[in-house]
Amino acid sequence: MTDEEKDLEYVMDKYGRTVSGIIASMLGSQSEREDIFQEVFLLYYTKDLFFGDEGSRRSWLIRTAINLCRAANRSPWYRLRNGEEFDPNTVQYTESEPTDERLWQAVCRLKEKYRLPLYLHYFEEIPISDIAKVMGLSEGAVKMRLSRARERIKSELENSRNITETEAEAHERKREREYIIHSRRV
To answer: What band does 145 get if pLDDT is binned at 50, 70 and 90?
Structure first.
């Protein structure tokens, strides 16, 4: 194994989850996500890159993943899919807790401009200053997007909890009615 291959293996092990998560938060199609993932690391492997530190390497990988996803969403192929948009139901979260799944689905339903900084900050624990550099925004803009994203997620989760409680109450009333009807027949 050459030094370049060892470096690629190291980078994929260290940053593969991050790159995969970014791509998953931006693209709906599983096959497109796999293609972009491969393309990011192919570019990394084939280009003669030099990074002063790990932060620069991580930033390059994140920026490349974002740019490739945006290019994929602007491509003629994307338009041929009849405007198929990002579908949060196609993105699976790795945790098994139902509350985590609901949270992930709420995150996926956000617009990209809120979803991406939220994912980078809370799921990948990347500092706001680094997110601002990668996205070409000011730190204040990133903080504002995070704040708005949190508000939207909180609102959505509260609404879904209220709907779930209402559905549970309706189901309970239906069971009570069925019990009363059944007990009258006996």
So the answer is: very high
Closest CA to 38 of 71, 63, 65, 75: 65
Domain that holds residue 11: 3-185
pTM of the model: 0.69
Determine the residue type at 4: E
Give pLDDT, residue 84: 46
Structure tokens at 6: 């060892």
**3-class secondary-structure state, position 78:** helix
Structural domains counted in the chain = 1
The structure tokens listed for 170 are 């309706």
Long-range contacts for 83-91 (Cβ within 8 Å, ≥24 apart)? Answer: 84/28, 84/29, 85/28, 86/26, 86/27, 86/28, 86/112, 87/28, 90/28, 90/29, 90/30, 91/24, 91/25, 91/28
Exposed / middle / buried, residue 149 (Cβ in 10 Å: 0-12, 13-18, 19+): buried
Roughly what angle, to the nearest 10 degrees, separates helices 3-24 and 54-74?
50
CB 69 within 8 A of CB 23: yes
